[in-house]
Design brief:
The structure holds three protein chains of three kinds.
Chain A (H helix, E strand, L loop, with lengths): L26 H5 L4 H25 L5 H18 L12 H15 L20 H6 L1 H4 L7 H27 L3 H12 L7 H7 L4 H26 L3 H12 L6
Chain B lengths: L5 H12 L8 E9 L3 E8 L4 E8 L7 H15 L8 E6 L5 E6 L3 E3 H4 L6 H20 L2 E2 L8 E4 L4 E3 L6 E2 L2 H6 L31 H4 L8 H17 L7 H10 L6 H10 L11 H13 L10 H11 L1 H20 L1
Antiparallel strand pairs in B: 1-2, 2-3, 3-5, 4-5, 6-8, 7-10, 8-9
Helix pairs in contact in B: 4-7, 4-10, 7-9, 9-10
Chain C lengths: L2 H18 L11 H25 L3 H21 L9 H21 L10
Helix pairs in contact in C: 1-2, 1-4, 2-3, 2-4, 3-4
Classes of the chains: A mainly alpha, B alpha+beta, C mainly alpha.
Chain lengths: 255, 339, 120
């Protein structure tokens, strides 16, 4: 997500206003679209954003074994695409993630044993997902409060969303040669320690304090843009996206 | 794929939410609170080496309505230099062109949290009078707060009382201020800031909002609207709940608490909570005058006393004198009998 | 009305009243005129002094103390004079006289126009 050219009067384009790019429509609009490639991409985004929350949910709430949870996740997204689960979503009844979780619950209930996922037709590839990594994270999640399943699922969605945004930020910084920017962000925000200050970062990374400040602001802004971009692709409607953005970052977005 | 712990997720959420200031002078430290109009952050002023509070609007863009209201709030606060009003140190633009302003970082608790420690009438009235005095000052400067409530009053570490959140304050037109009318703001001087509200706007908080505000007439709400809110605040300090719309319910509620406020104080509260603005005190200053008379043990304008009530009040007010005279008379009678 | 004047008037009135109460003492009733005049003068002087103090110093506790001490002193002087029956009416004169001093001290601190200096 890039900023537009400066507006009249010298003010930069408000960074908190996310423009409405054609590629970032709500997931419903994209999946209901006629273009097969757009549908496939939309589903890919959906799976990328929700597979880890789904996996953790299946492991902690349904208490499936790692193998069974992995198979169910793979099968669920495959079947959801083939049978058009997402097209049945009604925004007036619930948030999209709640709808998706309900579908997942029903899928598990209808599948007595998730022994193995079948590769179905329709051109959907088996997802390449880091299940071992997700399994490793379970240790911290074991103490999660599961009384509010919707909140748990949402928190996992946010975690996965942020992780993707961090990875995207790292990748784009490396690709554009802005490794120093990511290093500042990583040292200050991803691995903070009490003795980290702008001055120590400037010394360690051979930068000025002013550069550290600018890089940090730039990285945070870019991270936020990436996170909001992913969030928008995971929300059912523009209104849901607006509400989620407000709750997540305390900002008003303009889809 | 990166793994983010719960703490890191929360930290990233926090840092990504922070406003980006166009200069290096202020460094955002942590969020303090968020309201409907804006968010407040603790920050460090690198030039002066002190902690301050920064308020930014929740507007989606610069020049948005919310953004203009924040600018208005900053200008109102800058005009009001009073110990009961948080001083504004600076104002400026964020990286995206929206407004922010810098004010003193107040450490303390809101009246909503502090009230439990105010067990006696005298302690409550001390705090209340400071609020009323601040509001009276604002009225004298031609500004009506329009959103007085316990969460907008802060009691500092050293007992100082501050009235916060002037975001929906109304600046009365200059002509009306000079004439002392103060109730209507149709004739606005070109130099006066824009009120930001229009007819039909409902601003304030239920339970503390004057009836004229509740009916959508915030744009014409004058000092009597603040008087209503002050009365509701006083009512809340005794009962712990928002004031009911019906005055008879007000009397009933005040009579049900233990210890109940005196008849004269209840009358003052009822006068503040009168439905018609004309039946209330015209301003916070008038309310304060009646409260001062109440504290001195004199009669108050809100309550017409019976002869017995007046005599009783006189006896209480001058009880030392009465006791001395009685002691003298008792002594004289005793000496006479002892003979 | 300024505090010294208030003290003077109040002291005189209370002194006169105090003197009249001697009518309840048969032994000295025959000298009531002298007693009343003397008591009035005493009250006048006490009132003036206490009122003057209240004019200069605004402090209820100090005003009461000064009223008590001054009135007790003058009451002492009166009580020190033997009565026609040869007795000294120490308590009957000093106690009520001191209370009158307290009353004047209180009244001059609370009422009347002072100089505006508050003692701490």
């Amino acid at each position: 997500m890039t900023s537009a050219a400066p507006a009249a009067g010298g003010l930069r384009y408000p960074c908190r206003v996310i423009p409405f790019p054609a590629t970032r429509r709500s997931v419903i609009e994209r999946i209901r679209g006629a273009d097969t490639e757009v549908r496939r991409t939309a589903f890919g985004d959906l799976a990328a954003g929700y597979w880890r929350p789904s996996y953790h949910y299946l492991r902690l709430h349904w208490r499936l074994t790692p193998e069974a949870a992995e198979d169910v996740v793979q099968a669920f997204f495959t079947v959801a695409f083939e049978k058009g689960y997402v097209e049945r979503y009604d925004p007036s009844k619930a948030k999209f993630r709640t709808f998706l979780r309900t579908c997942l619950d029903r899928f598990v209930q209808n599948t007595q044993k998730a022994e193995r996922a079948e590769k179905r037709g329709g051109g959907v590839d088996r997802l390449s997902l880091d299940f071992p990594g997700a399994e490793q994270a379970l240790a911290e999640l074991a103490a999660s409060d599961l009384r509010d399943l919707d909140r748990f699922f949402r928190n996992e969605m946010i975690r996965a969303l942020f992780e993707r945004a961090v990875d995207d930020l790292r990748r784009t910084c490396e690709e554009s040669g802005k490794t120093a920017l990511f290093r500042v962000f990583e040292r200050h925000d991803l691995a903070p320690s009490p003795d980290v200050s702008y001055a120590t970062l400037a010394r360690d990374l051979d930068l000025t304090v002013s550069q550290v400040t600018n890089y940090l602001h730039g990285a945070r802004r870019r991270f936020r843009e990436l996170a909001l971009g992913h969030l928008q692709s995971l929300c059912g409607t523009d209104e849901e996206f607006r509400l989620e953005a407000r709750e997540l970052f305390g900002m008003e977005v303009d889809p | 794929m990166t793994w983010l712990s719960n703490d890191l997720v929360e930290r990233l959420r926090d840092v990504a939410s922070r406003p980006e200031l166009a200069s290096d002078r202020y460094v955002i430290l942590r969020p303090i609170g968020r309201g409907g109009m804006g968010s407040v952050y603790a920050a460090r002023d690198e030039q002066l080496g002190r902690e301050v509070a920064i308020k930014v609007s929740n507007a989606a863009a610069a020049a948005d309505d919310l953004d203009q209201r924040l600018r208005q709030e900053a200008r109102v606060l800058a005009r009001l230099e009073h110990p009961g009003i948080v001083p504004v140190h600076d104002a400026g633009l964020l990286d995206d062109g929206r407004w922010f302003y810098v004010m003193k970082l107040v450490r303390g608790e809101t009246l909503a949290d502090h009230a439990a420690s105010l067990e006696h009438e005298a302690a409550r009235l001390v705090v209340f009078e400071r609020v009323a005095e601040t509001v009276a000052f604002a009225h004298a400067a031609g500004i009506v707060h329009r959103d007085l409530k316990p969460s907008n009053v802060m009691v500092g570490q050293f007992g100082e009382v501050l009235v916060l959140d002037w975001g929906v304050a109304r600046v009365l037109a200059r002509a009306n201020r000079e004439s002392g009318a103060g109730a209507r703001g149709h004739d606005r001087h070109p130099d006066d800031p824009i009120d930001g509200t229009s007819g039909g706007t409902r601003m304030g908080t239920a339970g503390f909002m004057a009836p004229e505000q509740a009916h959508g007439d915030s744009s014409n709400a004058g000092p009597p609207a603040d008087v209503y809110a002050l009365g509701a605040l006083l009512f809340w300090m005794w009962t712990g709940s928002a004031a009911p719309a019906d005055l008879s319910d007000v009397s009933r509620s005040l009579g049900a608490v233990s210890p109940a406020p005196s008849k004269r104080l209840s009358a003052i509260i009822r006068k503040c909570l009168s439905h018609a603005p004309a039946d209330r005190y015209a301003s916070a200053a008038e309310l304060m005058e009646d409260l001062a008379r109440y504290r001195q043990g004199s009669s108050v304008s809100a309550h017409r006393e019976t002869t017995i009530e007046r005599a009783g009040r006189w006896l209480v007010r001058y009880q030392t004198f009465v006791w001395l005279v009685l002691a003298y008379l008792v002594m004289r009678v005793a000496f006479a009998f002892l003979r | 009305m300024k505090k010294p004047v208030l003290g003077l008037l109040l002291g005189a009135v209370l002194g006169a009243f105090d003197g009249l109460t001697a009518l309840a003492t048969p032994e000295v009733a025959s000298q009531i005129v002298g007693i009343v005049i003397g008591s009035t003068l005493k009250g006048l002087i006490v009132g003036a002094l206490v009122g003057w103090y209240a004019y200069r110093v605004q402090s209820l506790s100090k005003g009461l103390l000064v009223g008590l001490v001054v009135a007790a002193f003058f009451a002492f002087l009166v009580a020190a004079m033997p009565q026609p029956d040869g007795r000294h009416y120490w308590i009957e004169i000093m106690l009520p006289g001191s209370i009158v001093g307290l009353i004047v001290g209180y009244a001059t601190q609370k009422f009347g126009q002072g100089r505006g200096i508050v003692a701490r």
